[in-house]
Design brief:
rod-shaped; 4 helices; about 65% helix; alpha+beta
Length: about 200
């Protein structure tokens, strides 16, 4: 039976993740499988891979053929390199201890590489957050300036309105005082006229 190491799609639209499975090459992509050996989530940076290393190595050694994406996953996790080293041991190129040393060196280098990717992603997220924060501060500053200007204009408008109202009240009071003064003068003149025109009483002689 020809076996393949391939991916089964799971998740929702726009957020897919995959199970790494060993299945009969004649089975449908998302159909029956022989064994699940890991998972692959491409939605993170770097992609999150959870792989049963020993079982993946076993299936490669017994002839299971990985698909292109599955081969990429196995290569990243070092399964393909470990298989290559074990084949070198079988051919007598080096012993098992040397193979393990080579693999550990490769693994340490790979971890550093992945850590660099994570650090760059973290720095990029921080930079984006900082840029957004600065933009938000700038927007808030602009809003505060506009609000201060509006409040100043409102204060000036209120002061002008109060001054106009005070002027109107003063003018009305002045007009009222003028009318009262004019009325008093008329009454005074009238009273004076009445006193002047009083007829003289003829004396008895």
């Amino acid at each position: 039976m020809a076996t393949k190491i391939r991916l089964q799609r799971h998740g929702r639209k726009g957020y897919a993740f995959y199970q790494v499975v060993v299945a009969d090459s004649r089975a449908p992509r998302d159909g029956k499988f022989i064994e699940r050996i890991g998972s692959y989530n491409p939605n993170t940076n770097p992609a999150t891979i959870d792989l049963n290393f020993e079982r993946a190595l076993y299936w490669l050694q017994v002839g299971a053929q990985p698909t292109d994406t599955a081969r990429m996953i196995l290569s990243r996790e070092g399964v393909c390199f470990k298989k290559h080293l074990l084949e070198g041991v079988k051919k007598g190129a080096f012993d098992v201890a040397a193979a393990e040393v080579k693999f550990e060196q490769w693994l340490a280098k790979k971890k550093l590489s992945l850590q660099d990717v994570k650090n760059k992603e973290r720095e990029a997220v921080k930079a984006t957050a900082k840029t957004l924060l600065e933009a938000e501060k700038e927007v808030n500053k602009t809003k505060a300036t506009a609000l201060s200007k509006k409040r100043a204009e409102l204060a000036v408008s209120t002061a002008q309105k109060a001054a106009e109202e005070a002027a109107e009240i003063a003018a009305a009071e002045a007009k009222e005082l003028a009318e009262i003064s004019e009325t008093t003068e008329i009454e005074t003149v009238a009273d004076a006229g009445q006193i002047t025109e009083t007829p003289k009483i003829p004396s008895e002689e």
